[in-house]
Amino acid sequence: MINFQNVSKRYNGYQALIDVNFKIIPQEFVSIVGRSGAGKSTVVKLLIAEDRPTSGRVTFGRYDVSKLKYRDLPELRRHIGTVFQDFRLLHSKNVYENVAFALEVAGRPEKDIDDLVKSVLDLVDLGSKGKNFVHELSGGEKQRVAIARAMVNRPDVIIADEPTGNLDPFNTLAIINLLTKINELGTTVILATHNKDIVNQLGRRVILLENGRLMRDEEKGKYSLS
Q1: Residue from 156, 154, 152, 172 nearest 164 by CA
Q2: Which of 139, 154, 169 is the C-terminal boundary of a domain?
Q3: What is the pLDDT of residue 221?
């Protein structure tokens, strides 16, 4: 499904990724780990075509992401749901409207929007919060809205970039459990994090980056900082 082939990325003389190679198959749960600045967020940006590699190739299914034309980006991104540390919710809209917004932009019929939004809010246990506004939610609830928004197009992949960075341990566990549930329902999950406790608890595949280089790629790996 996803393939990084000899991928390097340079920003103004800074080498963010150096000759990185890995594949991710459908329905995997993969943690991409490393210290701050290791290259995790660069991997995410290349996957969603927010950036392009300086050299090498990034493919996602039939898409050559590294060469994708601007007009084709919306089609690619309908297959990928992205969740960020800072939630990125619209404060002027309620929970239902935040989740529905992506479908409205895509021109989906109102009946489809209503069914999809209600279904995905139930999935993240926020079915009763549809009329609440962002300022009325806890941090954990905000992140669950963000996950619902990422899931509403029924993507093949969820990419979660430090999704628990602003959360307490209780809500961190709830979000990781939710991502695990989504994976068990058939969606590929890519988790970028520097939280070794989360990774070690999951016991899933671990890709370790250090200074832009891929240092380890292990099934059911552990993450420890030397």
Answers
A1: 172
A2: 154
A3: 59
Residues 49 and 150 in one domain: no
Write b or e for each residue in 178-191: b if 16 or more Cβ atoms lie within 10 A of its Cβ, otherwise e. bbbebbeeebbbbb
Task: Please answer whether residues 208 and 22 qualify as being in contact, where contact means their C-beta atoms are separated by less than 8 angstroms.
Answer: no
Domain match, 173 and 69 both = yes
- The pTM score is 0.92
165 plus 221 within the same structural domain:
yes
For residues 219 and 108, state if they share a domain: no
pLDDT one-digit tens code per residue, 83-139: 999 999 999 999 999 999 989 988 899 989 999 999 999 999 999 999 999 999 999
Tallying the residues shown for the chain, one arrives at 226
pLDDT in tens, 64-92: 998 899 899 888 988 999 999 999 999 99
- The answer to whether residue 63 is domain-embedded is yes
CATH number of the domain encompassing residue 198? 3.40.50.300
CB under 8 Å, gap of 24 or more: what pairs does 210-219 form? 210/34, 210/35, 210/38, 211/18, 211/37, 211/38, 211/39, 212/9, 212/15, 212/16, 212/17, 212/18, 212/20, 212/38, 212/39, 212/42, 213/18, 213/19, 213/20, 213/39, 214/20, 214/21, 214/22, 217/22
Task: For residue 174, give its domain range.
Answer: 1-79+155-226
